[in-house]
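Researcher: Predict the fold of Glutathione-dependent formaldehyde dehydrogenase.
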Amino acid sequence: MRALCWHGEEDVRVDEVPDPQIVNPHDAIVEITATAICGSDLHLYDGYVPTMREGDVLGHEPMGEVVEVGNAVETLEAGDRVVVPFTISCGSCWFCEEELYSLCDNSNPNAEIAREVMGQSPAGLFGYSHMLGGYAGGQAEYLRVPFADVGPLKVESDLPDEQVLLLSDVFPTGYMAAENAEIEGDDTVAVWGCGPVGQFAIQSAWMLGAGRVVAIDRVPERLAMAREHGDAETIHFEEEDVYDRLMAMTGGRGPDRCIDAVGTEAHGTGLMGLTDKAKQQVNLEADRPHVLRQAIKCCRKGGTLSVPGVYVGHADNVPVGPLMNKALTVNTGQTHVQRYLDPLLETIEDGDIDPSFVVTHREPLERGPEMYETFRDKEDGCVKVVLTP
Ligand code: NAD
Ligand code: ZN
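Model: Structure tokens for Glutathione-dependent formaldehyde dehydrogenase follow.
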């Protein structure tokens, strides 16, 4: 089959690779009909994840049609149309039973690498390096889906792919980010980053009762989307001082809830202009205008910081002193996607939201390499790319 494969920093290629096979009776094979590129893929593209290997198949936001199931699979059969969450979860360990699906204890066959780095291992993820399972990803013609009774969401309505595809990751991720922000009546919510995750965090902040939403970025098309689609007030972080503006907007108190939908960002602020060696160390000086530090500084005393943005390793000098003295609450994590699939599908089917508003680029899989570059550089008004194998 054809698949988008990682070959090193800024080097992804469409390769011919072997078709995936059922290797466990709980597996299913899905023929991919649509598959998106995520901001998380950019951390791999930018070369920040050391446990990628040449030839790894990328992608964790796929959907398609089930073509084969292992003989222990009970809920799916060939012909079912499914959205596949990026988190691989067994459904029966302590964490899955607590609905903490992205922390599953049984889905990372390389858990010892993760344990060495983090003390314990989170769940395996599709297409996200050997530290997180080494699973082939879904930017390909076919995908092997382990624990097929736990992950995939069957879509029975005739909604087009584009409207349901983003349930695989960024819609639930924006939603969990807003839930993690612990929004209460009329709170002011500040969202750093107007990529797809930021856009869905903005939408979800309103769904959860925010009184005011302020969005921060520097890409004009993304700021415009946050205003026009998200009803947010916006701050262009290169044209205005973010702290000063947020204080002015909140009478000097600061936003009640701050969402970092940026994470490790090479091309916004943090790592730009560093040598490769410095990038490897990813240990920035404290005075760089990094989002996490800025959010801690801006958040009102006693407020909440929600961090869906992905950080790799020890990327930041986190100001623990201010965090403690301002009595901030921090909530973070990879999204427990399975938890949100049914309720968010319902919001789409009811017509409350059409997630395809973020999709700006639709291209064949063969154009994947150019699309990684376009998406990374935010060229051509690019907010979200959907590839079709
Ligand atoms: P993206 O790269 O499209 O968007 C990031 C945005 O942040 C860009 O628009 C960029 O201009 C902006 N930005 C950069 N520096 C900034 C700064 N200093 N202040 C404000 N904005 C700034 O990515 P995305 O797909 O929206 O994903 C966002 C983050 O969420 C990534 O780190 C991604 O890895 C992460 N993510 C996490 C999960 C999860 O489960 N927690 C899931 C998906 C994505
Ligand atoms: Zn993603």
